[in-house]
Amino acid sequence: MAKYLLLKHYRGAPAAVNDVPMDQWTPEEISAHVKYMQDFAARLEQTGEFVDGQALAPEGTFVRYDGEGRPPVTDGPFAETKDLIAGWMAIDVDSYERAVELAGELSAAPGAGGKPIHEWLELRPFLTEPPTVTE
Amino acid sequence: MDELLLRRLTPSVLSILVRRGADFAAAEDAVQEALIEALRGWPATSAQGSPGSGSPVRDPKGWLVTVAWRKFLDATRADSARRRREDLVEEQPAPGPAGSVDDTLQLYFLCAHPSLTPSSAVALTLRAVGGLTTRQIAHAYLVPEATMAQRISRAKRTVSGVRFDQPGDLATVLRVLYLVFNEGYSGDIDLVAEAIRLTRQLATAVDHPEVAGLLALMLLHHARRAARTAPDGSLVPLAEQDRGRWDTGAITEGIAILQAALARDRLGEYQAQAAVAALHADAPTAEETDWVQILEWYDELTRFTDSPIVRLNRAVAVGEADGPRAGLAALAALDDSLPRHTAVAAHLHERAGDRATAARLYAEAARKAPNLAERGHLTRQAARLNISSP
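Structure tokens for the assembled complex are given below, as produced in the milestone run.
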């Protein structure tokens, strides 16, 4: 088994094919999209491949240590940040091919006009523990 | 096996152990182990109504006390506190019904002690008073079980020096129960129902109008639960809810409890909040809502709390009672970085007839939404306005 992260971006991914902001969809299209995402996660739970899924707020803060006895420095959010993660789904699957297949399904979530968004999702393998057998 | 019965017995079993001389932290661990053993080991004899010989079901409380005490002694022994154990064994009272003193209230005070952080107090209350297992609490709050176990044992260390027989702070107890209710995420354990159960139990242990106020508030909000989400999981705002799906039993009970509390003329924030909820419950339709009275209750409420949520909700009430322009003026006096400020502004602009501004603000509010259900709701609001006025 291998774990993969499916990353969804607010910004930073190439433009989707059906690239219409969600507030320009009809309320029914929004509901259909949400349902598709929920059903997708539920199906992966059924197959034993779901690990975790979370959504992130678009605005965050950068923080760094500023020396002994001083409060941390905070900065941002930066409007110019190129890469902005919207959320993720972690899956545990048998193969890279299966991970690609699932990412493709998730990218087919319906958007404006009820048509698939064809959104670009980023697929990243988790680094694993070293195997027991090494030779 | 009745899990709820076991959970109901938890605080009295725990206080019996403490009264026998066990320290709170060790007693609490022992009760938890006894509960887990009961959950695992008790066969379904009680459901069949034919408990076999030696079945613990005939006297569940006696069984729990015996097993918890044994667990406690085992743990003490394992700690090689031999001398202390022998003293305790000698002190052990004869088996049989415990004294009638109910220390449940003291347990609430201890678990919501002001020295605890809110998350620690919530976890400790759910375990020591609610009788939930660490695993159940961890699931409910979506954290790993080991994390929740640590949180609970740190909380117990924090209160280890607190004397059990001291009067506690009722306000922090109410705040903890309110938190459990308000953040009752879904899961195997219905934390909303659990918060109501624990508040009901508290109300029998202490006679205070704010405890009654909190219980009424919970019942009145819980009554709307079925109407609050659409079949697709999306949020249904109060004004659009199918009031026929409200739980009239819970409403009747909540209003009766509230009226009895208000008659005692010791108003507090929970009674005032419950009064607002009662006025909504009283309105057969959204249009018939008595917003003027609701506004008066919000004015009362601001005497007790400077919560930004209350001030925002007051601006909504102003908008309904005196018109959207007045609501926007009330809103302008508030910090626009408050959560939901933008969503309230969007609503008031729409009511004032400025649909373009409302749509823009709904979309902005959706980006700031703290959860997916609200984000979805606000995005739909923006979409609805964008579709009908392109």
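Residues 210-305 of chain B form one domain. Residues 17 and 27 of chain B are 6 Å apart (CA to CA). Further analysis is deferred to the final report.
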